[in-house]
């Protein structure tokens, strides 16, 4: 699991154009340890606890479950789905239900 979290964390950070230190500080990690901690997270040495992961997700504007998606396509769908309005989520659910019934 640590490899998946590490991969997703690095992808999301790079997509936002943030350094490890800036991301860590923005997520509430002490500025003196932000860079080394983020580096350890991205290398899979340590996995952030869920509370820290939620703060990182908020800064990176991705849902926390994104970090746990082992499949790249599923990770993309999680990001897409999180950006939909509730109305669009319901429409998508109905569409998928219809597809699954055929």
In helices, the fraction of residues equals: 55-70%
Query: Can you write the helix and strand succession as a string?
Result: HHHHHH
How far the N terminus sits from the C terminus, by CA atoms, comes to 35 Å
Largest sheet: none
**Total count of helical runs of at least 4 residues:** 6
The best one-word shape is elongated
Q: Give the strand content.
A: under 5%
Short description:
The chain is mainly α and 102 residues long. Helices cover 69% and strands 0% of the residues.
Account of the protein in words:
The chain is mainly α and 102 residues long. The chain has 6 helices and no strands. The chain has helices at residues 2-16, 20-26, 34-43, 50-60, 72-83, 86-100. The longest helix is centred in the first third of the chain and has 15 residues, at 2-16. The model has no long low-confidence stretch (mean pLDDT 95).
What is the secondary structure topology, with strand pairs?
Blueprint: H1 2-16, H2 20-26, H3 34-43, H4 50-60, H5 72-83, H6 86-100
Helix pairs in contact: 2-3
């Amino acid at each position: 699991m640590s490899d998946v979290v590490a991969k997703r964390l690095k992808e999301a950070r790079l997509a936002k154009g943030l350094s490890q230190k800036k991301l860590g500080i923005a997520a509430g990690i002490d500025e003196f340890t932000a860079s080394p901690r983020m580096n350890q997270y991205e290398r899979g040495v340590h996995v952030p606890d869920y509370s820290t992961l939620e703060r990182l997700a908020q800064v990176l504007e991705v849902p926390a479950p994104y970090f746990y998606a082992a499949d790249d396509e599923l990770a993309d769908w999680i990001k897409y789905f999180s950006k939909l309005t509730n109305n669009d989520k319901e429409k998508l659910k109905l569409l998928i239900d219809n597809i699954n019934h055929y």
